[in-house]
Amino acid sequence: MPSVGAPLSAAPVRRGFVEIVEGQVHYREAGTPVPGRAPLVLLHASPGSAKALEPLLRALGAHRHVIAPDTLGNGDSPPPARGQREIAYFADAHRRALEALGIERFDLYGTHTGANTGCQLPTGHPERVRPHIVDGIGLYSEQEQAEMLERYVPKVGVDQNGSQFHLIWTFVRDAYLFWPWYRKDAAHRRPTGLPDADTLHDKVVEVLKAARTFHIPYQAALAFDKRGRLPLVRVPTLVTCAADDMLFEYLEGVQALMPAAQCATHRGMASPETVALFERFLDGVG
Question: Strands, DSSP E only, in 136-271?
Fold first, then answer.
C-alpha cells in the first residue's frame, strides 16, 4: 500500500484494547457514532495488522465511526486459542470483541484475509452484518490452494542469531515484487514495485510482532472453502478489487459466486475515488 499522509479533514486514529477470553484484542478506530449510520468494521489483510488500514480509517472516519481490530495472532492482539485454525473461529473472535465494545450490528469491509473472515461473518451471524464490502479475495484451484498452503506462508523460527528479522523482511518485501512471492522470476514479477521505505518498515514491524503466530490466521484464509461459503452470503455486498492487486484475476470468478452482489474495480485503498465508491455503496444500502 502506498504511504499516505492524513489530509487536514481526515479523522485522527485512536487505539485501544478490549478483553475477550483469549486476552486483550487491539483495535484502531476513527470518527464518532453518527445517528442513522452503523459503525463500520474493517478487517485487515495478512500478514500485518490493522495499521495498514489507517488511510481508510482516517478517510471514512470523517463521516462515521470506523473500527479496525487486529485479528487474533496478528499485530498487538493475542494469539488464537490452541488448536483453533478455522476462519469461522477468527470471525467469531471478531464478533466477541465487537460485542464487548457494545457493537452488535455493523457495516463490514474486509480485504484479502480480512475478506475471507468477512465472508464468514454474515453467513454465521447474518443479523449482525449490514452492507458488506469484499475487497480482493483469492479463488484458487485445488492445485493452487495446495501449493499455497505448502509454500506461501514461511515457517519462522525465533533464534539468537535473529534469522527471523531477515526472513520476515525478505518475505514482506518480495510479496510486493512477485506473485506468489517465492516465484522470483520475470513471469511472476508484479508491476507495482516496492512501497516507500517507511511503509515497508512499518509493515515488517507489524509482522515481527506476531512472528510466532501470524501464519495461523493466514493459513486459515488460504484453506477457507470460498466456493462453498460465498454463495451463502445474503447481505448486500460490493465485490471489488484494485486493478493492480495480485488477486484481481479472481474478481470475475468471485462475482459469479455472488451474482446478487454489486461489482466494481477501484484504484487502491488510499485513493479518494475508492473512498467515495465505498461511501456511496454503504450509504446507498444503509
Answer: 237-242, 262-266
Instruction: Give yes or no for a cis peptide into 180 (omega within 30° of 0).
Output: yes
The amino acid sitting at 158 is V
Cell of 10: 481526515
Contact 163, 157 (CB under 8 A): yes
Taking the C-alpha atoms of residue 116 and residue 98, their distance in angstroms, rounded to an integer, is 18
Q: Tell me how far CA of residue 227 lies from CA of 65, 119, 122, 254, in angstroms.
A: 32, 11, 15, 8
CA angle centred on 284, ends 241 and 71, rounded to 5°? 50
Per-residue pLDDT of 39-59, as tens digits, reads: 999 999 999 999 999 999 999
- Encode 209-243: b = buried (16+ Cβ within 10 Å), e = exposed: bbbebbbbbbbbbbebebeebbeebebbbbbbbbe
The Cα–Cα gap between 223 and 140 comes to 10
Span between the terminal Cα atoms of the chain, in Å: 28
pLDDT tens, position by position, 96-129: 999 999 999 999 999 999 999 999 999 888 889 9
